[in-house]
């Protein structure tokens, strides 16, 4: 299992998995909007990076990493915005493998740290992230101001 850079030829596969991910968490999903976002990300490399992972010739999931900057964490940060593993591939240690591979790629991407958000009720994912060294900030809340396109 390898964490590979997604390419434009993977767009349909990514959209299919993203639709499943959004459905699972009951997030609104607009395929056309998401396709436009993927295309922008492929051309704006400094915004972030899309990864895809496969087992054999089957898509097993994807990871969307957004880039930011933090004085607190000493430079460029990667924000794991989405990590999706297809149901047939869950429970096999794939999340651990993918996170380890991502951490190995950090230096090459110039990342000082990784951050992520996880649904509070998703205890299995929280255990995974904690086992890989991610820490919950007990004194902080992730807060979001939705921009004009989100209203």
Properties at a glance:
151 residues, five-stranded mixed sheet, alpha+beta, Aminopeptidase, 4 helices
Could you characterize what this model shows?
The structure is a single chain. This protein is α+β, with helices and mostly antiparallel strands and 151 residues long. It has one domain: Gcn5-related N-acetyltransferase (GNAT) (Aminopeptidase, 3-Layer(aba) Sandwich). It is 32% helix and 26% strand. It contains four helices and five strands. Strands 1-2-3-4-5 form a five-stranded mixed sheet, sandwiched between helices. The protein starts with a strand and ends in a 20-residue tail after the last helix.
How many whole angstroms does the radius of gyration measure? 15 Å
Distance between the termini: 39 Å
Share of residues in strands:
25-35%
Oligomer: single chain
- Choose one word for the global shape: globular
- Mean pLDDT value: 93
CATH class reads: Alpha Beta
Low-confidence stretches: none
**Sheet having the most strands:** 5 strands, mixed
Q: Estimate nothing, just give the exact number of structural domains.
A: 1
SS summary, helix count: 4
CATH architecture: 3-Layer(aba) Sandwich
Structural class of the secondary structure composition?
A: alpha+beta
Widest sheet: strand ordering: 1-2-3-4-5
Compressed to H and E, one letter per element, the order equals EHHEEEHEH
CATH superfamily: Gcn5-related N-acetyltransferase (GNAT)
- CATH fold label: Aminopeptidase
Report helical residue fraction. Answer: 25-40%
Number of strands: 5
